[in-house]
Every structure is written in structure tokens, then in C-alpha cells.
## 1
Amino acid sequence: MPQQVKVTIIGSGYVGLVAAACFAELGHQVCCVDKDTQKIDGLRAGQIPIHEASLPELLNRHRGTNLTFTHDIREATREADVIFVAVGTPQSSSGSADLSYIDAVASEIARSVSGYKVIVEKSTVPVFTSDWIGRVLMRNGVPRSGFDVASNPEFLREGTAVNDFLVPDRIVVGGDSERAIEWLRRLYEPLTSGEYYSRPNALFSAQHRIKHAPPLLITSTKAAELIKHASNAFLAMKISFINNVANVCEAAGADVDEVAAGMGLDARIGSRFLTPGIGYGGSCFPKDVAAFRYVSEQLGVNFDLLREVEAVNQKQQENFVRKVASALWTLRGKRIGVLGLAFKGGTDDIRDSPAISIVQSLLQKGCEITAFDPAASERARQMLPPASNMRYAADAYAAAENADALMILTDWDVFASLDLGRLRRLLHHPIILDGRNLFDPDVMAAACFDYLSVGRPPVYAATAESAYASGPHRAADKQSPIGEMVAPLVLQSGPSSR
Ligand code: NAD
Ligand code: UGA
């Protein structure tokens, strides 16, 4: 058996809680801390504060045995070998990362610890943060020999967080002391040796046995901090790139799926993160792109490329709202069903969700929205100010009922298997605006929808009979030489008669 490590994780949010459950799953003794006493009481009582696949199973396995919860940092850190910091690092008004939560935690750790500790940045932080944490500890009386600060950036994605943690592409450990690196090496040993995957009760064991043991990359602390920011910025850039390619495809009458497939087959490019949509969102890409640009500029390096990534992302949401307007002619009073409020499928997280921004924009334009999300409706209800034109539906079909159009704003798998015939019968006008390209346009044509997606030729089937009397078809079937006038997106009937 691998050696057990005593781990404390400060911050029990999307990252801290998943990391805690997974370290416990690996066999370590884990204490999870949060200043939110309600959250801690709930976790102790068996409640699960976030929607994340496999997390309930892991918490049930380890709660009360090798996974405990407390709001008392002093109690939690006393016995720990390794202390992870997993608190939030939100964006400040300048674009830089707001490190006040990290600063506060460093001071609290300093007041609590006695004896050597490895303090590990799990939060996403700008380069040089480890130096600052060290300074705070020493200012608060911890001798230099009493700690090391290391960086172990987290690359999990919400919705697949447990899988990503236990079967990562790589594990990055940044440290400037062999002692600190050794503790982290020991902590991840069950994964890096492949031993975990051969345990009879391991999650994800069968398909990952032996050959998928992840590499452990050891770097300087600064390099590890930079790897995290650079990776998120690069992925965001990839999404903005494909979104702009999608816009070119729309203008040219080509299909972005075909273009992305052709690009992705080049191993240097890769097929992942080439799905166009309504722009990236979430609590990380937007703030991390801004923070990386900010810290680069502070270091005297111009990173205007990232400004462009942000600008394309912003425009992508606006493009979609324009597409809705082009499909419905006028917006005031239009009833729109919305599928999806979370920033991506598989999570209840609505932080910086493009779906929420689009809904807010349409509410301001006087639309009546009825929204459904399999997990995020409650959070949206708490965040969005109550409004007479904003309602929440119990399921996808109820969101579609009597709507002038249905928008798909989050890539939940369940949306892709909805009964299209039933949807068509429920909608007042069978128009679907798909911001996530969940459906095949040919299928939508056959199901007699007007179907507008991202970067793919629109399908006009249901409401433009007079213009397209020969029946449903994809607009790309029409050849359009460069330079010819571009036709309006959809020919539409007037406002709803209701
Ligand atoms: P979160 O907001 O879900 O959780 C942060 C938690 O820290 C909260 O529960 C909060 O109450 C707690 N906290 C704040 N100050 C505290 C203190 N002084 N003592 C104890 N607890 C305290 O945030 P998150 O999404 O888990 O992100 C945390 C960090 O991880 C961020 O830097 C983020 O960029 C990074 N990250 C997030 C993800 C993700 O998918 N969410 C992935 C990789 C990295
Ligand atoms: C992202 C990174 O993928 C993780 O590696 C990282 O750990 C995390 O940020 C973080 O630092 O917090 P996450 O935000 O959970 O993970 O989700 P992603 O799957 O990356 O999606 C981010 C956004 O991009 C979502 O709005 C998603 O819909 C969008 N996206 C993603 C696209 O529009 N197209 C794609 O091809 C992929």
C-alpha cells in the first residue's frame, strides 16, 4: 500500500471538495475546511453542495472515515503534512486576480501551524504568488525553515471533475525544495504508479488499467504557476479561434463541423476544444485570460493576443442574440423557451455563464423567457432578479410550450435526446436556435424545424413555406458566389398572435 499522507484542504468549493474526495479515495487522511459554516454542516450531514458526477459516490465512501470536515483552520492544520489552498481567486476590476482570499488564508495558516508544513497552491494564481505566500507566513512569525510553498495547479473541468482528477493528462508539481516535492510525489503516487487503477473498487479502473498512469511533471514553482495560466489562456484562444472560423463558415455557406474535423485530424492541432458555440464562460477562462494578460503586462510583456480572444468571445454572445432577432424579426413580447442556464453541461455552475448573459440581454429587449436547466435553475433563480417576464419550467417540454422559438444555450446531453416531434407540436412556431450545435441539421430539416446553429448552414423548413415551397432543405444547398448579397438569415412571420 502507498504511504498515507495527512492532507488539509482549505476551501471546499468545486476544486477543494473534489480534490478532498479524490485524495481520500487514493487512501490519504483528508480534512476539508471552509469558512462557510452552513456548507460544512451540510457536508457533515451528508449533503452535497454542487452537482458533479461521481462526487456523491466518493463522499459517501469516505465521509467520516478518512474524510472529515471543519470550519476551524487551526484544528485542521495542526496535524497536516500538506496544506492545500483552494479558495477563490476572482477577477478584480483591473482584470488582475483578486488574491485577498489567498492572503487571508496564508495569515490564518501562519497563526495556526507549528512544525514543518508544505503549503500548496491549488487555486489558480499568477506567477510570484508563492513568493507572496512565503512572505506573509514569515511576516506572521513562521520561521523560513517551518514551511515550503509549492504549486500544484488543478486542470479538472466541471462536470467531469472526478474523472479528470483521478485520470488526469498530467500532474504538475512546482516546487523549489526537494522536501516539498517529495511530499507531493508521495501524495500522487497511487496515480503515477498506476497502482490505483488496479484496485478492485477503483472508479474508472477497468478502462484505465496500467497504460494510462499519468506523468508527473516537476517544475519550478513559477513555471507551475505559469503552466496553469498559459493552459487556460490557450484553451480559451482555441475556442475563440473556432468561433471565428464558425463565423467565416456562416458567411461562406460552409459547415464548421467539416472544417473542425479537418483541422482536428492534424495531431498538432487536435480535435478537442474545437466546438463552436456562444463563447466560453465559467468561473475560470474569463478571469484567467484577464489575469494572465494583466500579469504579463505588469512584467512588461504585451499580450494583446489575449485581448482579441476576449473580444471574440464577447462578440460571440452578441452574434447569437442578433441571430435570435434575425429569426424572430422583433423581440419585444416574443416568448422564448430556453434550454440550459449553466455555463456548460454536467454542472450547476452559472458563474459567468454565457447562457445567463444571453437570457439577460433578451429580457432587457422585452422577451418573455421560460427556462429549464437540469441542475442550474435554482442557482439562476437566486442570482437573477425576479422579473415578470422570467419563468422557470419543470422540464424541457414545458419550456418549449407555446414558445415562438426555443434556444439551446447549454450542452446538456439530455437535450440531444429530446423527442423532436413532441417539441414541434408544443412550440407555437417550430424554430430552434441552437447555440451548442447539439443537433444534426439534416435531422432538424427532416423534423420540419427552422434550425439555426453556429457556423453551419441554417435549415429553413417550417415557417418559410412561401419562400421555400419545395420543402425543407439546408440553405447551403444554394451556391452563393463570393461578392453576392448575403440573404437574411430567416424569413419570418410577424409577432405572435397571442
Ligand atoms: P469556489 O468559490 O467554488 O470555492 C471556494 C471556497 O473557498 C468557498 O467555499 C469559500 O467559502 C472558501 N473560502 C474562501 N475563503 C476561505 C477561508 N479564508 N477559509 C476557508 N475557506 C474559505 O471556487 P472554486 O471554483 O473551487 O475555485 C477555487 C480555485 O480553484 C480558483 O482559484 C479557481 O480558479 C481554481 N480552479 C477552479 C476550477 C473549477 O473548475 N472550478 C478548476 C481548476 C482550478
Ligand atoms: C476549464 C479547463 O478546461 C480546465 O482544464 C481548468 O481546470 C478549468 O477551466 C479551471 O481552471 O477552472 P471548465 O471551465 O470547468 O474547465 O470547463 P470547460 O470544459 O473548459 O469549458 C469552459 C467553457 O468553454 C464552457 O463555457 C464551455 O461550454 C466552453 N467550450 C468548451 C466551448 O465553447 N467549446 C469547446 O470546444 C470547449
Note: The first strand starts at residue 6 and ends at 10.
## 2
Amino acid sequence: MCGIVAVIGSREAAPLLLEGLQRLEYRGYDSAGIATVDAAKSSLTCKRAQGKLVNLVKLVDDQGALGQLGIGHTRWATHGKPEVRNAHPHRDSSGGIAVVQNGIIENHSSLRKELESQGYEFASDTDTEVIPHLISRELNLIKREGETSNSTWLLEAVRKVSFQLEGAYALAVIWEETPEALVVAKRQTPLLIGFGEGEFLCASDTPALAGFTRTILPMEDDEVGLLTPLGIELYDSLGKRQQRSPSLLKGQEDVATKNNFRHFMLKEIYEQSETARLWTDRYLPLGLSDEAPIALPFEDSFYEGIERIQILACGTSRHAAMVGAHLLEQFAGIPTTVFYASEFRYAPPPLTSHTLTIGVTQSGETADTLAALAMEAKRRAVYGDIAFASHQLGITNRLESSITRQVPNILDIGAGIEVGVAATKTFLGQLLAFYGLTISFASRSKQCSSKEVSKLINELRSVPSQLITLIKQHDEIAEQLSQQFVDVQNVIFIGRGINYPIALEGALKLKEISYIHAEGYPAGEMKHGPIALLERRVPVISVATPGVVFDKVLSNAQEAKARDSQLIGVAPEGRATEVFDALLPIPEVSEWISPLFSVVPLQLLSYHIAANRGLDIDQPRNLAKSVTVE
Ligand code: G6P
């Protein structure tokens, strides 16, 4: 979490920093700050504001921040409350060195004690503040003599400090004594250098750079970089100069607009039909053969020898992975297990052979997912499973993200930029990616007939047009139904089989944006505990789609109704649905593709409940779209 941006060149830095931060605000919005160095006066100005970026913009408008060199930060609080004193940039005691950081310095507490014992005074509760003090201490130790310029001293000081830091970080440093340079460094947290016209930039992610340049150079772990108006120099941890060429950004990094929608989330829910259309056009074009019924970007060799699949993901991506696992097991016949990436890292299962590892992350930046994938690759290499150490697949919406640099095979969901923190169209895109993989594996494994595969393909081709109607219909239904949730404090979502993950996703959406406590549960498990929660004020939303578990889910729904809960069904019209007090109708489709429809009413219901409450739907409290710390 947190986004950092830095710039040095011939233009005033503050407006560029604020523009870059605006494009990084999805990484956190607890506070924001910038620091600039005015070369004429050799003085550093630091402006910080609590809350959203708009507060900082106002402050900078009112008070100014001069200089053609600067650093900026948008914060998602880890250490220390979201208050101004904990906002970045953080400075050393003299106020002449300023640092922005994204990551977690795990040994900050021992470093702080050591620095305090040496007389360094701290002004915040953050882990980051040790860094400017450490740099200041190093600068005092460096013998400043000979022809070497100040910028080399700063570079050397940061390189030495990086040895003292444990954890993951991306940082940018300025010093009022070096208005001709800024220094950047990173370990296990992304940092990209941008080559602009007359300026060099650095940022946590491509959107912050895309407004200025499309020529990008991602930094490697443990590198330190020196940026001046004339060029960049990169060094490894031993101080050896590195030579690498930049590349051109491939993906569309446009800034999205809300058009006429009230919120990005609503716009993105509506965009799901287009996500599905783009996906079917790209991967299911007409004229494919029975032998290769889907146009995924992988050679036959990609599928060779795969007997099992394990999927690592977090949040909504994990729910998509759970639907995927159901499809891969039940339709394609491949044993598949889904893990929370954060749990897998520290308790991986015993190794199994011939296992493909898939990471699912819309942002391509989730720290736990990336670290779990890296750990798995290393573990397999150590055990001699070389083939499957490097045989990993990433499913992402961001072609320029860290996962695409880390994992050799990428499946692009192509949903376009998603701004709302609550994932909607990327979830649908991830589901579609799993339908694609399922078709590929099923046609190879011969677990099902080519007729069954063709049927699934034809059903998928009809999804985009069906979604257009469904979304419009449910926007209205959900708006009305949401009125009944004015005083609701708890909601239970139930589903079974392929729609159990949809119950989880429905509950997560409601929690994230409306702050109503919600739980998703497998319908058959309700009687083993959660049913005790049911009473008149606790609505139950039951996802009941025709298929193997339809009657079972209806019985479970009856059990909830018998406990006085208001029962809302997500089900096709007229199919024994009189049990429901309210119906959120979905088309009668095969159970296999039902999650693509059943999730939509739940997204819209959450949206309207939160909108009625007047909440900040696109930037819910305490959350961030890209979770770059573990
Ligand atoms: C955050 C976001 C969620 C997302 C999760 C995983 O919690 O708020 O919407 O599902 O991270 O993110 P990823 O980028 O890995 O899909």
C-alpha cells in the first residue's frame, strides 16, 4: 500500500507530484504529502495533509512548494494513526533530508531505540522515520572530501542505510544540499523509473508515470538509483553500476473518468458486459476447432504434465479462484486447491508433483500473492522440481504490473482500468479467465465430451448480451430493495457448490462499502452454528441456481425463513422461488455459468445500500486497491 512518486527536471515539481499522486490514490488515502527542494535557496519545503489528496492540493495551492525536484506520498496507514505527524515525507532532525517510503521496515523498533540512544529525536510513530535519521547519521560519517559531489554522498549514504533495513521497501530521498539529485531504492516493493522529456521520474506504479512518459525502467531488488536532470545511474547493493535499457509501456494506462455515473463502482458494474464481450471476442472467436476450442495465449507445452493445480490469491481474487477451482475439478477433472496467499507463505502444504501454481491478482501487485508465488518457485527449485518451479501462471488485469515481471505465463483479463476499490469487473474478468482455462484443460483431458465443451462455449458467447439486460434490470431492483436495509446491521449470504464463493463475494462487497457486518456461508453448514444468529432483523440472501444443489439450497433457505429472517433469493423466476420474500431474478442458465450472473445483483445491492447511507463508495475507509504490504 501507499504510493510514492518523485521527479527531477526543468519544470516545477509540485504540480507533477500532485498529478502523479492523484493516479496513485487507489493505493491509500489516509494522508498525502510532498517535499520539494528549491535550488535557488537550497531549502526544503514539506507539505502534508491528513485524509484524501484533495486536502494536500488545497494546502499546496495556499502555501506553495517551490522547486524542480520533489517527492510525494499517498498513505495507507500501517504504523501510526492517519494523522499529519505520521504523514510522509518524513525528515531528519535538521529538516534538510526528506524521505517517502512504501513498505514495512520490520526492524524499525530496534533501529529507533538505537537512534534515540544516540540523541536522534522522533516526531512520528511510523516505521519510515528511522530512514531519514539513518541517512543523516551516514552522511555525518561519510568523509566529505575530494572532488566527489554531494549527490554521490547521498547515494552512498542511502546504499549503506539499505543494508540496515529489514523488510520490504521502496523509497525516494531528497536533501536540500543536493538540489541536482534525488536518490531512490527498493526491495520487494515495486519502483519504476520514468524517462520523461526534460525530466526523470520515479513511482510505485505505471499510472503515475503514464501521464508523463511511456518509457519505463523497473528497478530491481536492492538497487539504488541516482536521478539528476541529465540522466539516471543505477547501482547494485555492492555499489556496482548497472546497465539496463528502458522499455515502452505496452498497456493502456489511461485515467478513467466516471462519465455520467455517480461512482466508479457503478460504472464498472455496468462495464461488465463489455468486459465479457472483449473476452469472448478475444478468446472465443468463431471458427476454432474442437481440438483447440479456445484461443488462450499458451502453446501445447504449457499444459504438458499438469496433474494438479494450486491457486494463490487474496480477497475477491480468491473468490474468483474458488469458482475456478470448482470448474477445473468438476468440469475439467483436474484436482485443484485454493489458498489464501498470506497463509500459504508461512504454512505451504507438502509438495505435490506435476502441480501448476496460479496466482490471481487484479492489481498484479498484492505483496502476499507475489511473495507466495516466489516462495513456491524457490521451494520447488530446492527440491529439484525444476520444471514446475518456473511453470507458474498469473491471472491479472495489469499487464505492466509486478506479477508480469515475476511469472513466465500471463493470462490478461483485459477488463480495463478499475478505479473502485471494491472489485467488480475485474472479478468477472477473473471468472472468465478460469472458464478459459477450464475449456483448455477439459478439451485436453477428455474428462468431458467435445459436445459438452461446445455447449459451455456457446453459453459463454451469450453472456455479454445477457449481462447488459441483467445489469440494467438489477440497478433498478436493487435501488428499491436497498431501502429495506436502512437499519440492518447483519446480513448472511448463503450458497452451495459453484455459487458458494458468490455468497462469500456478496458478503465481502457489502462489508467493504456499506460497513454492514456480513457473512458468506455454505448453505448446508448454517445449521452448524450460524443459524443461531438468525432472527427478524437479520436478512438472509440465498443464491439458488438450478443444478445439482438447487433443491438443497431451497431447503436451507426455508430453514432460515422459519427463523423469521427476511429471505432474499438470487434465482431464476418461477422455479419454486415462492419461498423468497424478495427475488433478485437471474436468467435460467446452466449451473456452470451461473456465477457470471448471480454475482451481479449482489454487487448492485451492496452498491445501493452504501449509496443510501451516503458512504464513500469508491474509496471505502481503511481499504486500498493495491495491497503492497503483507
Ligand atoms: C484488496 C482490494 C480487493 C482485492 C484484494 C486482492 O483488498 O480491496 O478488492 O480483491 O486486495 O487484490 P488483487 O489485486 O491481488 O486482486
Note: The first strand starts at residue 3 and ends at 9.
